[in-house]
Amino acid sequence: MPRSPRIEKRLAAKRSYDSKPIFRRSRTIEAVLGTSCVAALIILEIASQIGLLAGKELIGKAMTVLCGVTLLAVTICILVLCVLTLTGPIYKPQLDFSTGDLETYGPIDKFAALVIASLIIGVAGYVGYHYVAPVG
């Protein structure tokens, strides 16, 4: 049984999700965000336990550096995802039936990315100003 042109258009739009750039797909954004946060939590937990149980000052300092680098990497990852969200459309794998095209992140998602990026930059600025004391 042949499909109507309207259904064919919707199916073509749905199939076009895989042709979008990889960092403009919501599944990629969500996977990167989830993986980086879970990996960071695992690394922080293991490093903090090793640092506490080792009993040597050198190992404790090494684990502190590892925790700092992990937090820096996750922070940069989240900032990159926020910039991607704010600079262009992020496509969802579902259709917007009013237009017949793929849904994209809306104004609420972009506002959330702006708030998260602002908080990260604000906290980094605060830490840099108060704890990384300028010489002189």
From TrEMBL:
Record-annotated membrane-spanning stretches: 31-53, 65-91, 111-132
On the tree of life, the source organism's domain of life is: Bacteria
Q: Which UniProt keywords apply?
A: Membrane, Transmembrane, Transmembrane helix
Write the protein's name.
Putative membrane protein
Source species: Rhodopirellula sallentina SM41
